[in-house]
Write a structure and sequence with these properties.
This protein is α/β, with parallel strands linked by helices. A 5-stranded parallel β-sheet has the order 2-1-3-4-5, with helices on both faces. A 4-stranded antiparallel β-sheet has the order 6-7-8-9, covered by helices on one side. A 3-stranded antiparallel β-sheet has the order 10-12-11. It contains 8 helices and 12 strands. It starts with a strand and ends with a strand.
Length: 219
């Protein structure tokens, strides 16, 4: 497994790099945004770990440019800013996960492994429900670009329309382990998907069943 780690705090970066390598993860360490972007645009990494506050170019800008160029390498954002709004913003821009500083290296390792062990190739068949068409080959829903996590979440809904899907099920399918993700991550993705359905003028909607989970319906 090869990871790109973009972090300008040298002491922290070296310590995390050392601990990741002890877990058998190869790490390329970059300390500024411009070099981080150049490396991130290549197709050699299993995961990119980005600090938000970087010299020359922010982690946020790196993330945006990656997704604009359809680079779908999984991205974990790191930041001392732990507000829900900050998390939602970066998830909306295509981040796959978000980890607030300070963090334990063991948790970062767990999140990297959860992202990387998900299948990199997706079933090429399209999935339809009502007026929705999920094109897995091009990672789009009715022509709108999706992140890897959004594809997985929407696939779960569209495979089982009108069926209750629990938060625990989504955590297990999308994050790889029950309890690894946070409830507000799921809420953030539900918000993103609802906005997307509204944008494409779909009759489908995501309904929250309080305390139980969600379902997609067009009724």
């Amino acid at each position: 497994m090869r990871v790109l780690y973009v972090e300008d705090a040298t002491f922290l970066a070296e310590a995390v790099k050392h601990n990741l390598e002890k877990q058998g993860i190869s790490v390329d360490l970059v300390n500024n945004g411009e070099d981080g972007l150049e490396n991130a645009m290549s197709d050699i990494y299993d995961c990119v770990v980005l600090d938000i506050m970087l010299p020359k170019l922010s982690g946020t800008d790196i993330l945006k440019r990656m997704r604009e160029k359809n680079v779908q390498t999984p991205v974990i954002m790191l930041s001392a800013l732990s507000e829900v709004e900050t998390k939602i913003s970066h998830l909306d821009h295509g981040a796959d996960d978000y980890l607030a500083k300070p963090f334990k290296t063991a948790e970062l390792v767990a999140r990297i492994k959860a992202l990387v062990r998900r299948p990199k190739t997706i079933d090429i068949s399209d999935i339809s429900y009502g007026d929705l068409v999920l094109d897995k080959t091009n990672a789009t829903l009715n022509g709108e670009q999706l992140t890897a996590k959004e594809i997985e979440i929407i696939t779960e809904f569209m495979k089982s329309p009108e069926t209750l899907i629990s938060k625990e099920h989504l955590l297990a399918k999308v994050w790889g382990e029950v309890g690894l993700g946070e409830d507000n991550y799921i809420e953030s993705y539900m918000s993103r998907i609802r906005k997307l359905l509204k944008k494409i003028h779909s009759k489908a909607r995501i309904v929250t069943i309080r305390g139980l989970g969600y379902k997609i319906t067009s009724k």
